[in-house]
Amino acid sequence: MRMPERIVMNRRARGGNPLRGRLIFLATRNIHKFNEARRVLAEYGIATAMLRMGTLEVQSDDLEEVARFRALNAVEKTGLPIIVEDAGLFVKALKGFPGPYSSYTYRTIGKNGILKLLEDVENREAYFKSVIAYSSPEEPVRLFKGIVEGVISLKVRGSSGFGFDPIFIPLEGDGRTFGEMDVDEKNRLSHRSKALRRFAEWYKSRSEFSPPSSQQ
Ligand code: IMP
Asked: What is the model's pTM?
């Protein structure tokens, strides 16, 4: 099996047999996603390695379909057990836009473009959705989802995180945007952490999972 060239390992992953069910590869080029994921999964004793690889994208308005396709493609390329994650921001007053087109929207009109579209709009409700797709050479794709409800702020606030973090105020928070929170605070509330926790519970419950303490 040929290992991809650039793998960033979470320190906890070093030592022991890394492929015994407690190491997972996250295929992404987004270091923020990786940092969020590795911190959540570490709580479950799962180490995360970052596979800096591109995956084929399908044109679809369905996050699940995109994630499923990318996971299959990543496993085919690497032969490793892999998760990929696809997320999007869904704004109610914009009928769910940008949703699955969040990445393109961020690169083109950006956070300020969304604020502009919502100028004078009273209903600022929005949610982030995350879909994690897990697959391995022996297993079919499994999907795990997470949603966080919130509102779009009136202006850009904070510089932490990435993407639309500085304009999203989670309802269950204290009024700050994700951009005003550190990664652990965001992880207590975010769509991604919810999907990751669902994945981790399932991954841990599999019979071949052996917790770090029982490794030799
Ligand atoms: P991706 O295709 O899953 O990387 O996400 C699409 C786009 O949605 C990203 O480029 C970000 O702009 C936005 N996005 C996804 N997740 C988050 C998040 O947790 N915070 C802020 N923006 C996000």
From this structure: 0.88
